Input
Amino acid sequence: MGEATLFVVLFFMVNGPVFAQASGLAETKLVEQTKQTENKTKKPKPATYLKANVIHGDFGLYGYRYYFNDLNFEIEHHWSKRHLGLAGFSIGYRKEDFSSSDYGHFLNSKVFWKAEKHGFYFKPGIGGEWGKPSPRFERTRFHYRGVELISYERIYLERNAWMPVGVKNTGTLNPFFELGIGQKAGPVLFEGGARIGYDKFVISTFQFKNDNLTFQGVSRQYKLIPTLYVGVGLKLF
Output
């Protein structure tokens, strides 16, 4: 019995560190597997943000140069899980032409997709905007023969939507596309990107003949309205 006991004691003295190391490795592996399982099963939580964006436009259209800055406020909600592949939606208000409160008011809404990697997210979206535009895109283009005025064209946005106040059919309803890249920092998110409107324009042509002004015709064209935006959002809940 004494020899057997001595053998057991010596065996564990020699091999004890090996068993301890193996036990530690097994425990570490178990902790890592537990963390991986938790990360896989951890579901993203829904979040709602209040965002403020500055929208900047600088482009040419029908021979004219346009340069402007608009302000857009929106409530943006991110779902905890995808719905038909979508990650969330937003409802917003945009103001253009701060010189007047009679026009330049728009309501907009969009749905968006989202992909996240390395702390950044990529967010394409599509939506629509309804409101009463300013005279920003209203232009008159004159044509001369020498010094004689022979014709002119009136270029403006087509009014295709009803308005609840003022002249009823003076609103517009047009789609837009958006592509944003952003980053979250705690309850704050920073985002920038491009927004492209798809607006319908009307061109009415008038001509002078024998000192009389005659209407020649009207054409309608869709044009892309490219803008850039940068904004910041604060998580509400």
